[in-house]
């Protein structure tokens, strides 16, 4: 299957065993000659760190080699505080979590970090992120690696969420769109089983696609009518304040919806329709089998998703929606940290990892 000689495979197996990555579990039934040996991955042989940064939070987790979260911590910090303060917090929390497990930096294989803005994946540097002052062009991987010397992989937070949701809930689905609706709106696209980043890393930036209902509304990007300016958490809150409701943030909107406020329910349902307008186009272009709605505003429950379904199923071609599922995220707030962990694991266990580990030993 590998195209490798038996001796090469044996040498690699021995090296993996020596490093503790795998261990023998039993012998398979013989088909003639000596029974073949079976080996299994040792999940806690090494650890990875998954980091999800939002507009106002830091979410850090330590995961094993299957991507299962062992321990995590979430706290509030504004991304606008700047890269050194925010990443300094990430490093401090990582060290504290490792200490609680009785582990050290040498046990880490890598760190994955999701940022709430466009990222040049090849370098891990943010590219003119609209809600991240001071981050443009900042070398995130280099800064973190100076403090924790392991590979550091950086990507857009919604891409991480798409990876996390798919790996844990939809592993057999090859075509999936994850939509995050929170302070901003963005999407992560998996097509043909691969995450699609595009030429400059901004594939899936649906928040700045114009919609008809927002023609006269100014977006923070400088354009008029962007989806994000109409259907994000802050946009919904602003509309409710105009109706004399006490809503300063998206979280306030969610609380109003949960309390049965009719105006809030209608506003969230309309936001779902607006998002559905954009997703109907995405369905025609990408033809996903699953659309997952996540982020803070997804906590408003079925009201948001009902609006999305209403428009997508109405405007899309019947063949495109015949087997299309539109659901709320099942990994919820953990989607980002799980995806960041998976990205780090995939990199760490790719070809050449043994040689790199030997050089670091």
Structural overview:
With 361 residues, the chain is an alpha/beta fold. It folds into 3 domains: 6-41, no CATH class; 46-160 and 336-360, ATPase, nucleotide binding domain (Nucleotidyltransferase, domain 5); 162-332, Nucleotidyltransferase, domain 5 (2-Layer Sandwich). The chain contains 12 helices and 14 strands. Strands 5-4-3-6-9 form a 5-stranded mixed beta sheet, with helices on both faces. Helix 4 (157-169) packs across helix 11 (335-348). The longest helix has 25 residues, at 262-286.
Structural class, from secondary structure content? Answer: alpha/beta
Q: Got a strand count?
A: 14
What is the CATH topology descriptor of the largest domain? Nucleotidyltransferase, domain 5
* H/E topology pattern: HEEEEEHEEEHEHEEEHHHHEHHEHH
Question: What characteristic shape results from the CA principal axes?
Answer: globular
The overall pLDDT, averaged over residues, is: 91
Strands of the widest sheet, in order across it, are 5-4-3-6-9
Beta percentage is 15-25%
Q: Tell me the major beta sheet.
A: 5 strands, mixed
- Low-pLDDT stretches: none
The tally of domains stands at 3
Gyration radius from CA atoms, angstroms: 22 Å
Distance between the termini: 30 Å
- Percent of residues in helices: 25-40%
Instruction: Please give the CATH class of the largest domain.
Output: Alpha Beta
What is the quaternary state of this protein?
single chain
Q: What is the number of helical segments per DSSP (H or I, 4+ residues)?
A: 12
CATH architecture of the largest domain: 2-Layer Sandwich
Under CATH, the homologous superfamily of the largest domain reads ATPase, nucleotide binding domain
């Amino acid at each position: 299957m590998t195209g490798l000689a038996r001796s090469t495979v044996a040498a690699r197996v021995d090296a993996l065993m020596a490093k503790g990555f795998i261990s023998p579990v039993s012998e398979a039934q013989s088909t003639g000659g000596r029974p073949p040996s079976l080996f299994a991955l040792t999940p806690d042989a090494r650890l990875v760190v998954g980091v999800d940064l939002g507009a106002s939070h830091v979410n850090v987790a330590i995961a094993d080699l299957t991507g299962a979260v062992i321990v995590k911590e979430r706290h509030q910090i504004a991304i606008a505080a700047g890269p050194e303060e925010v990443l300094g917090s990430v490093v401090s929390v990582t060290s504290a979590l490792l200490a609680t497990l009785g582990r050290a930096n040498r046990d880490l294989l890598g760190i994955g970090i999701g940022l709430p803005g466009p990222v040049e994946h090849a370098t891990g540097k943010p590219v003119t992120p609209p809600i991240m002052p001071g981050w443009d062009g900042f070398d995130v991987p280099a800064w973190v690696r100076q403090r924790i010397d392991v590979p550091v992989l950086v990507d857009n937070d919604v891409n991480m969420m798409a990876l996390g949701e798919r790996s844990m809930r939809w592993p057999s689905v090859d075509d999936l769109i994850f939509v995050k609706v929170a302070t901003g709106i963005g999407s992560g696209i998996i097509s043909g089983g691969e995450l699609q980043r595009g030429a400059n890393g901004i594939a899936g930036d649906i928040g700045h696609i114009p919609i008809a209902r927002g023609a006269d509304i100014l977006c923070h990007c400088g354009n008029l009518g962007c989806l994000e300016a109409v259907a994000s958490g802050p946009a919904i809150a602003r509309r409710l304040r105009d109706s004399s409701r006490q809503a300063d943030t998206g979280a306030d909107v969610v609380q109003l919806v949960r309390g049965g406020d009719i105006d809030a329910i209608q506003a969230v349902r309309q936001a779902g329709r607006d998002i559905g307008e954009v997703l109907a186009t995405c369905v025609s272009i990408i033809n996903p089998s699953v659309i997952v709605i996540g982020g803070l505003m997804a906590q408003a429950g079925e009201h948001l998703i009902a609006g999305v379904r209403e428009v997508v199923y109405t405007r899309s071609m019947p063949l495109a929606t015949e087997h299309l599922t539109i659901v709320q995220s099942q990994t919820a707030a953990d989607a980002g940290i799980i995806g960041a962990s998976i990205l780090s694991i995939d990199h760490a266990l790719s070809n050449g990892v043994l040689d790199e580990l030997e050089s670091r030993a």
